[in-house]
Amino acid sequence: MDRIDIAIVGSGPAGISAALNAKIRNKTFKVFGTKEISPKLVKAHQINNYLGFYGKSGKEIRDEFAKHLEEMDIEITEEKINNIYSMGDYFALMGSKNTYEATTVILATGVNFGKPLKGEEEYLGRGVGYCATCDAPLYKDKIVTIIAYNKHEESEANFLAQVASKVYYIPMYKEEVEVDESIEIIKDTPVEIVGEQFVQKLILKNNEIETDGLFILRDSISPGQLVPGLELDKNHVQVDRKMATNLKGCFAAGDIVGTPYQYIKAAGEGNIAALSAVSYLDELKRNSK
Questions:
Q1: How confident is the chain (289 residues) per 10-residue block, as mean pLDDT?
Q2: Which of 69, 106, 211, 231 has its CA at 20 to 30 Å from residue 37's CA atom?
Q3: Contact 27, 38 (CB under 8 A)
């Protein structure tokens, strides 16, 4: 496996700003996210506080970002990163399709992870997971429940239906649900995950489901679950002025590090995080001589 210099997790303004600087400084890197760049940005009706883009819609700004990436030959890898582990002198990233190694990491996932369900953290790894395709073999001929926050997760449900004996699908989005006919769709609100040693049941507002496994598919995972050992300030990642976290070689930028939630702030922090990662890499190179 080839180890890259910088793994950038998130493709919003912070992530792509970091990518621009990684490219300019001739570092090897990958940006993990969506080619839509930022669904949140696209939904903005009008943005008046981004320097140079007065009165523009979020979609217009997104289109300019996309042009910039194209001009610099920067591609976004459309893969969800589920876990990142500090291995001492590098980081191991577990994606929904592949695994990766990077000397440094920049976290730019935003704050769309939401509040964990009651029992979610308690049963993580004991029936609760965040990647259905990764863990599907564990649930052959078993009952599985998927809580999905985005329509594109329907493909994971369809894949799991080929393995599990029964799949319940709980959509937390408004679009029409289009999944395999063998999947039972439940439109209700999850409240609590319960069990003994492993998950046994999901409590909903108006119902209860007995289940052997539960996958919670959010747009992004809370930082504490994404990167074990990461120091937090409530729901945000704690960083210094160089966007460095408590883990050596790990940096963070954008909404994930706290308010104000502003696109121009996120872009600036992405710039700083990338330059800090580059300085860290250059120092490692000097010390290895």
A1: 94 97 97 88 82 89 95 95 94 93 96 78 87 83 93 89 95 92 95 94 95 87 87 92 98 94 94 98 90
A2: 231
A3: no
